[in-house]
Structure formats: structure tokens, C-alpha cells
Specification:
Blueprint (H helix, E strand, L loop, with lengths): L1 H32 L19 H17 L5 H6 L2 H22 L3 H17 L6 E4 L3 E4 L2 H22 L5 H24 L5 H21 L8 H20 L18 H11 L1 H4 L2 H16 L12 H8 L3 H24 L4 H18 L22 H14 L30 H7 L2
Helix pairs in contact: 1-2, 1-8, 2-4, 2-8, 2-9, 4-5, 4-9, 5-6, 6-9, 6-12, 7-8, 7-9, 7-14, 8-9, 10-14, 14-15
Amino acid sequence: MGQPVREYLLTLCVTVAVTYLLTGPVRKFAIAAGAMPEIRARDVHREPTPRLGGIAMFGGMCAGLLIADHLQNLNGVFERSNEPRALLSGAALIWLIGVLDDKFELDALIKLGAQMIAAGVMVMQGLTILWIPVPGIGTVALTQWQGTLLTVALVVITINAVNFVDGLDGLAAGMVCIATCAFFLYAYRIWFGYGIESAAPATLFAAILMGMCLGFLPHNMHPARIFMGDSGSMLIGLVLAASAISITGQVDPDTMALFVGGERNATHAMLPVFIPLLLPLTIIAIPMADLVLAIVRRTWNGQSPFAADRGHLHHRLLELGHSHSRAVLIMYFWSGLIAFGTVAYSVHSASMWIVLSLAALSALGLVLLLMPRFTPRAPRWAEGLVPPRYRHTERAAEAAVREDEGVEPQPARPVVAGVSGVNGATAVGPRSRLPDRRKAGSAR
């Protein structure tokens, strides 16, 4: 088992390195190509920022697949299954549409059609849902049309859910990376724990997706130097959907000895059985909730479901008074709690400690939501590892500047989107009188 782990780590590292190294040149290309759209009303940033980050992510994905194809153990995934080729075909198509959209702003219906075509291309090459687990019945085989429709629907929903949540620096890439890490642990356990080779493609896809996100995040954290754009958000959404389809719709639960006679009479006894099988859907739980709320909100207001607005979950966090970085970290927290909590419960469903721990962490998350004015400070020994705003020395320097300028100390005020410099707008009040180096550090 140690050899496959090393090969997965090598694939992950190669994907991270290629994505990271390509992002810099891609940023220069995006600026030269004019892929820097004007600031929109719903945007949080206040300076034009290049897009097309998906080009680097697609390059990292291709490098990961290429290196995996030449490794001793992972090579079998390409020999026994056509799913990696199906993923590459669908990803290339959706990535190309995303690049065109980042440059020319394509119509929403055109993108929707391209998403359905990309899903259809994957279905034609074998990446499709073959059966689904149904509570009280067991595994139900799907017809070809049923499997195709369900696969296309899952791909389209996942792509748009990830696209909807891509509204703050590092948000989409970080949330997908955290949740995919939990998914990788589950898929790896299914493959090597139960000896089910049909889980191998999903495990490989998860490792590559983590590498794509990790390689891009250093360039995309606040203040972002480049955005992934639709070429990136739709790409990672499609890879995410492909992983979910591969393990949920093609790994037969009966081979895991989860069912007795293919049927369970007690609903309580079935719960631990179906939660692991639904794990791939939990990795998009928060983006999915954001997507559903956005559709309901826009339809209720008489708008098109595709109309853009500032009502997403991350916008709500900013309106509550959270800073840009804090809003992202809160979304990270909930994404990790849902994904890793589901994995832990699927392994030890009878453990009360897991349930109590999840309840305690959920309560902690709710407290953090209601404390936008609280600013944590790192210990002095860790100041070099955190952003300047969390350092004691930085706070002391700011106080000294205020004292030298004769400015009275001001009480902490909530950070509101479109008002505070932390979120990208020009600072107002006494803070605007700080030296330029302070304002430049908080501008987007």
C-alpha cells in the first residue's frame, strides 16, 4: 500500500508545481490579451484583475494525468478504465468555453449548453452513473437514458455551484481543495480498504484536483494577483463532478458488504450505509445551498436565475462586518466540517464522540459568524507566519503613526463590503491618513 501512496503524492506534487509555475506566465498573458474586465457592481475587488487562471489549472491537470500514466500502480487506471480519457475530453471542452468567456463574456445560455455537451462527451466515453442506492430497496440499476440524464444534471449543477461560490479571493479553490481532501481519504479507503478497483479513477481525480487548487491558491489569496475566471471555476467543478460520478454511480455498494440481502428494514440501521455513498455530494453542500438560495431569491424578485447580484453567502458575511479574509476562513471552516465530519461518521457511525464533536464545532462556527468585530492576534513567535493585520508589532506601528499625526484612536468598526479597505474599497476616515504602504497592503 505504501507504493500507491507515494505515487499519489508524486502526482499531487507534480500537479501543484506545474499549476503554480504556469500561473505567473498566464497572468502576464491575460494582461497582454486584455482579459481584465471592468469592475462590476457585484464585485468585491476595486482594481481590474486578470482572469484566465484556468489555463494554468488545466495545464496542471494534464501534467498530473501524464505523470500518473507512467507510474507503475496508477498506470492500471488508464489500462482498465476509459474514465481518465473521458475526463480529459470533457475538461478540455469546458475549459475552452471558459477561456472564451473570460475574454469575450459569453451568454449564460451558451455556457449552459456547453456544460451539457461536455457532460454528454464524458457519458459517451463511459463516465456515467450506472446505479444508485435507494433507502429501503438497495442498489437500483439505471437505464441508459436515466443514467445519462442524471449524469448530465449532476455535472451541470456542480459546475454552476462552484461557479456561484467563486466570489472572493481564494474562496472557490480553497473550499474545493478542503472538501476534495476528505473525498480523497474516503475514495482511497474504498479502493484499498475494500479492494474495489473501480474506485481507483475517483481517487486519482481527487488527487489531481487537490493539486490544481493548491498550486493556484498562492496566487489567488487576498489580495489576489489573478482570478481563475470561468475557465478555472467550471473546470474544477467538472473534475469534482467526475469524481462524484465515478465513485457514487459506478462502485457497487453490494461489493462493500453494506447490504444484507440487498435490503434494510430499519431506517436507522441504513443511515450509516448511505451517508458514505452520498459523500461526494457533501463536498458541494455549501456551494449547492448558495446556488439554490440564489435561484429562489432571483426568481422571487422577478429576475432571471442567471442574473448576477450581491446576495451570495460570502456577500452576506461581508455585510455582517467580517473582513475579506475572515469571510473566506469561515467558509473554509464549514466546508471542512461538513466533508470531514461525513467521512468520520461513515467510518465510526456508532461513536457518540463524533456526533458530540460535530455539534461542538458547529456551535463554534455559529459563534464565529456572530463575532465580526473580534480580531485575533497571533503570538509573537508566530508573527512571521501570519498576515500583517494579525501581528502585535503591526498594530503597535499603526498606533505610533496615529500618535505622530495627532489622530485620536478610533473604536473598531465593522468591516462592510464596499466601505472598508480590507474588502478592496478606498479606506475612509483616520485610516486613510496612514502611509501609502498601509493602504497598498489592503487594496485589492
